[in-house]
Batch of 3 targets.
Target 1
Amino acid sequence: MINIKILSYKSPQRYVVNRTLMVAQNMLKKTYPDLKIEITEVKELSEIEKYTAVVILPSLVVNEKLVCVGRFPSRDEVLGWLRSALTE
């Protein structure tokens, strides 16, 4: 199980990152059919600030590790982080 948190108080930003995650997850399911990913959208500023001071742009946490701060990750970056999480 991979736990992912999308940190952003703006809904459109969370949506874009979520779509990128869905594409990456679908690609990985071909290799890992039993892959389980839990995605949580963190909207509260106080919760976001537990991970990063950047609250205007989206950030991403994979298994409680901050992997992307203040930008929109590419699909290939997300695939790399998910593969890394699978081997941990």
Target 2
Amino acid sequence: MKITAIAATALLAFALTGCATGPTTDTGTDTGTESGDTTDESTETETGGFVGVTLPGTGDYTVPDQAPIGGYELPDYQDGLPDGCTWMTYLDNGDVFGDGETNGQFVFITDVHVRFVTDGCPDWVQFE
């Protein structure tokens, strides 16, 4: 009976190691910000799923160096911005191109933007 229990335990341990999540493959590079504000650039998992950048909710980011081009959202706030959260995107001439008051919890950073400024917000999560 003891041998059966040991064999069952070993079989279970072997089966569970096959269920572990594998490492992700980085298809980008680190943003290299001095303050380390952003996480790794866009990545794909081994199964091909998109994993984007996360930007802290307070910061002044240059596009595309610190804030890669793409769509970002505040995933837990589907009814607008949380209290005290503001954001703006800027063109190279200094004009504001988009803001949270108009666009809510989504920001789309494109190649026409040079800056993304956010204050008092939760983390911004890039989506595909």
Target 3
Amino acid sequence: MSYRSWYECVRGCGRQYSLNEVVYRCEECGGLLDVQHDLEALHTKSAGEWRDIFEARSAEPFVSGVWQYKEWVAPQVEAGNVVSLNEGHTNTFRANQLGEQVGLPDLWVKLCGNSHTGSFKDLGMTVLVSMVKQMIAEGKSIIDVACASTGDTSAALAAYAAAANIPAVVLLPRGKVSTEQLVQPIANGALVLSLDTDFDGCMQIVQRLSEDPTVYLANSMNSLRIEGQKTVAFELAQQFNWQVPDWVIIPAGNLGNVSALGKGFLLMKELGLIDRLPRIACAQAEQANPFYLSFKGGFQQLEPVTAGPTLASAIQIGNPVSYERAVKVVKQFDGVVEQASETEIANAAAQADRTGLYTCPQTGVALAVLFKLVEKGVVTTNQRAVVISTAHGLKFSRFKVAYHEQDLDAVVEQYPNPPIELSADFDSVQGAINRASL
């Protein structure tokens, strides 16, 4: 069976484009584009047949967690043009202890940061860079692949572009990404431009750069990214024996990730692999909350904000590109949008760490929002909830150190655990242990 996919305008005007065209918005109405798949062809296999195919592939060594679903993601990319770093296949952690503490016994955390560059962005970047390699093989003149980033996108782009031997250009807001995130694209040989602006300012410039068709845009307004990121939904369902949780809670910044999550669940339901949809909760930092404000106003419109300083720097975005897509998902999934303060973010991350996790601040936002929803009775104690952890905590070590040194601005730390400095003698050590056990 030959499978195919194409771009189609999200606003329903009917305009379609080939995936090998350099296009990001509908030329008729300006709407974003989504990748659509030939559902008639996909329906030629039963739900059971698809499950068997994916189960067999996931048992193979070295298989990508994205490309095991190739027919559902990017069927036109030839095998020789796939650029994979064995992304995906991330574990879903049973957070028993944390769940008991907050009154939610069936709590899980999907550790998407356990990937090659340390974040979920690998899932979308493998698809985008593979498609670029395919386009170049077909004769397209693409010189650079470029992105604006708050850190994780740039790391993923730089790694996958290096593996494909394609030049990468990265625009970062100066002083607003962690050192660990900054060094990743530098190490992978990208041209890193640190600009005196915020993410939204970087995004405006990279969109202008991509008006040149030889500069290919790698941000999530490019829906090829969405195709890879939707595999988080596939993995979750597969890990729970093709059952869906009651709730999925996800950090929300540029809103590509929630759009991808919804798209993945909807495709599985369409093809009969699942029989219902989960509810989705989008979690925003109070300092960067345009989607929350729009939700509170009934999604009448998006009013961009100037994102303030937040520990959750990866979602410090005031004008989210994928707003239209995300609104559709929240409505289809009976979703909610909630926000969290800086103190709530920091303490939720620290509380989770004390139960064996090692969370990034964006995951802290999702956890803090979940705790609020439990307190309000929106998420009930008999429900299964999965928090999407978007990046590895090691990317944010300075945040961790500052928390335990009680040196974070506007944060009241509940769980500080600084090292105890002692003289090197047995009695001092024994005394410290005894005091800690009291």
